[in-house]
Amino acid sequence: MTMPTNDLHAEFFAAAPPGELPRAPLRLSCVVPVYDEQANLANFVQALAASVQALTTDFEILVVNDGSRDGTHRLAMELVQQLPVRYLALSRNFGKEAALTAGIDHARGNVVLLIDGDFQHPLELLPQMRDLWQLGYDMVYGVIADRGAESGAKRLGTQLFYRLMNSGSSVKLPPNAGDFRWMDRKVADALKALPERQRFMKGLYAWVGFKTAALSFVPQDRAAGESSFSLRRLGALALLGLTSFTTLPLRVWSVAGVVVALLALAYGSWILVDTWLFGADLAGWPTLAAGIMLFSGVQLTSIGILGEYIGRIYDEVKQRPCYLIARDEDRSPLRDDAR
Ligand code: UDP
Ligand code: MG
Q1: Residue 48: per-residue pLDDT
Q2: Does the residue 234 lie in any domain?
Q3: 257 is in which domain, residue-wise?
Q4: In terms of domains, do 284 and 179 share one?
Q5: Whose atoms come closest to the Cα of 229: which ligand?
Q6: Ligand 1 pocket, 158 CB below 6 A?
Q7: What is the distance between the alpha carbons of residues 292 and 288, in angstroms, rounded to a whole number?
Q8: Which long-range contacts (CB under 8 A, 24 or more apart) does 188-194 make?
Q9: Model confidence over 128-138: pLDDT tens digits?
């Protein structure tokens, strides 16, 4: 097999191919998480089905409705009648990470494709993903090559996040790699086996490992509607990532504590020497007041960070499922009894 050509904006970067494997014939499960996507859903699922048909006739499209408030449900129910769609409706909005998890849990193919339902992930990349999979890569993911369209604050935040993440965690996150992924069954099974409820998917993909290849792409503009990820929501996601995959924020305070203690010791010794040699004086109240305020601030911050971790532990020990399915319209041709 030849290496894929670089058309579109796609550029291939990965280590030498692991060697061609005799892969079983492709049975593809496409997972599409949707939240308030009535303007895109029908067009997108049709376009996806057309692109996938060129790769295999053995496929299913899992539309995961993440508690949409618009007409997404009605449209999805129509699509189930027309195309090889399995429709999963979550009981409320659980967030994209949970919607993806639901899709992966219910996928039956030997390959699972994760793709957004807003046309931002180019369907033109699918043949290249398939070729790389056939070359032996178990996971092929899209990397955003150009964040030109995003605000400065979002770009800066993203940069800071990846720097913190990669300095604190032994698992390295490839910067700007998103949820646009082609995964072999063994990767999907590995993800399913991870027990955590609070799922920071970008971290989990990196954690499971396997042979991976990246394809860079320039995301298209959203076909319709608006992104549901505000700066605040992205901030919450970044905090989830940091606290799920690193203990760096905790370690910072241990180091700060040691430094402050050493400084205090040095200062205390200096006062002692000063008093012995030059006699006592009672000056230094402003220093004292400022010092008390500074260190209560430091202590509150460190308690707050401890609290973040304890909150995560609390959420995990409750062992609630990370999503609930309210409806499952299963017309998937990959159903065992449909074969
Ligand atoms: N999405 C979801 N649940 C949410 C928010 C988003 O399933 O709570 C879906 C959304 O419908 C889309 C994908 O996740 O298919 C990416 O979301 P969006 O386009 O809002 O994010 P962005 O592309 O800006 O990262
Ligand atoms: Mg989007």
Answers
A1: 96
A2: no
A3: 248-317
A4: no
A5: 1
A6: no
A7: 6
A8: 188/104, 188/107, 188/112, 191/101, 191/104, 192/104, 192/105
A9: 999 999 888 99
